[in-house]
């Protein structure tokens, strides 16, 4: 805990004046963002800095300047015990990053035993409960290569959950999946949200963002352009850049996004739309 922070109910994540450069290129240009105990979805064009922002939250990337708090702990304080704070944060990436040589059960128990010092018996009991939670009870002995992409991603989510995180970061968890497998992963995430898990989710799934997010953050060019409830940011965007992005994402073949926006307000179309992964390039 950092001594100077006296807030009584700190947001789960608090970001202040965050800048990040890679060499001469400034990728994050001053981000201020709070994630209270709720679901925040981050949307925006490829290269806008979404992944970099998420990676700065647990200091997988070191900010060039600015502050990042997780609860009351300042991650950017040089004295912060990063390993201790990171244990409270689950992270799920686009690529599942499972241990290929370990079966599902071992994938879920290894960090519990080595990092949290849980007994094997306890770790296995938690692993089985968590697998049940993501709809994979009975798959303990399977190896990652024997599972579909959607199942592997659910194992990856379960592996994070087994560490009893206080909050979860997701970076386009469905972008690498075949379209028919997206739903099962989003369903698990919807379940987590319904249980009250604090989640920061970078996603191109506009229907998910609209239905599940308490708040949507639209990023472009390394800044937060607009944020608010989904019905506002997705349904009735105030900024031209947000309108242009939504128009492109929801209607990728449109010739002139600006005309599309004025002809059909983005919010009118979104209800039935499921944006296919790949409509906007991920990486
Ligand atoms: N390690 C790095 N070294 C140099 N440049 C980087 C590095 N990581 C990211 N960048 C650059 O920073 C910019 C933002 O990248 P970032 O991955 O955060 O974007 P993004 O919004 O997540 O995009 P996408 O939707 O394609 O995933 C890009 O121009 C990218 O090339
Ligand atoms: Mg990204």
Would you write up a description of this structure?
Mean pLDDT is 88; it is low at 1-7 and 260-283. This protein has 283 residues and is an alpha/beta fold. The protein is globular. The protein is 36% helix and 21% strand. It has a 6-stranded mixed beta sheet, with helices on both faces. A 4-stranded antiparallel beta sheet has the order 2-1-4-5, with helices on one face. Adenosine-5'-triphosphate (ATP) binds at residues 22, 27, 44, 46-52, 281-283. Residues 13-246 form the ABC transporter domain. Its main location: membrane. GO terms for molecular function: ATP binding; ATP hydrolysis activity; ATPase-coupled polar amino acid-transporter activity.
**Largest sheet properties:** 6 strands, mixed
| Low-pLDDT residue intervals, each spanning 5 or more residues | 1-7, 260-283
List SSEs in N-to-C order.
EEEHEEHEHHHEHEHEEHHHH
Ligands, deduplicated = adenosine-5'-triphosphate, magnesium ion
Instruction: Name the helicity range.
Output: 25-40%
Across the major sheet, the strand order is 6-7-8-3-9-10
**Gap from first CA to last CA:** 35 Å
Share of residues in strands:
15-25%
**Overall body shape:** globular
Count of helical stretches: 11
Structural class: alpha/beta
Mean pLDDT: 88
The total beta strand count reads: 10
Kindly provide the radius of gyration, computed on alpha-carbon positions and rounded to a whole number of angstroms. 19 Å
């Amino acid at each position: 805990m950092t001594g100077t922070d006296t807030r009584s109910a700190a947001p789960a994540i608090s970001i202040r004046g965050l800048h990040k450069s890679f060499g001469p290129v400034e990728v994050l240009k001053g981000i201020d963002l709070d994630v209270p105990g709720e679901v925040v979805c981050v949307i925006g064009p490829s290269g806008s800095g979404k992944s970099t922002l998420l990676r700065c939250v647990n200091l997988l990337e070191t900010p060039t300047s600015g502050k990042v708090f997780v609860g009351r702990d300042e991650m950017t304080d040089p004295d912060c015990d990063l390993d201790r704070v990171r244990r409270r944060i689950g992270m799920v990436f686009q690529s599942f990053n499972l241990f290929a040589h370990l079966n599902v059960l071992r994938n879920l128990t290894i960090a519990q035993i080595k990092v949290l010092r849980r007994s094997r018996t306890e770790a296995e009991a938690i692993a089985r409960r968590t697998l049940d939670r993501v709809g994979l009870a009975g798959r303990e002995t399977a190896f990652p290569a024997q599972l579909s992409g959607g199942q592997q991603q659910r194992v990856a989510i379960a592996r994070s959950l087994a560490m009893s995180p206080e909050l979860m970061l997701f970076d386009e968890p469905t972008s690498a999946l075949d379209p028919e497998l997206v739903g099962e992963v989003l369903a698990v995430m919807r379940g987590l949200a319904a249980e009250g898990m604090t989640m920061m989710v970078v996603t191109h799934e506009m229907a998910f963002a609209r239905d599940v997010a308490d708040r949507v953050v639209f990023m472009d060019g390394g800044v937060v352009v607009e944020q608010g409830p989904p019905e506002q940011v997705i349904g009735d965007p105030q900024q031209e850049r947000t309108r242009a992005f939504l128009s492109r994402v929801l209607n990728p073949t449109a010739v002139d996004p600006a005309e599309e926006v004025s002809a059909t307000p983005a919010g009118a179309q979104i209800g039935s739309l499921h944006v296919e992964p790949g409509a906007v390039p991920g990486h």
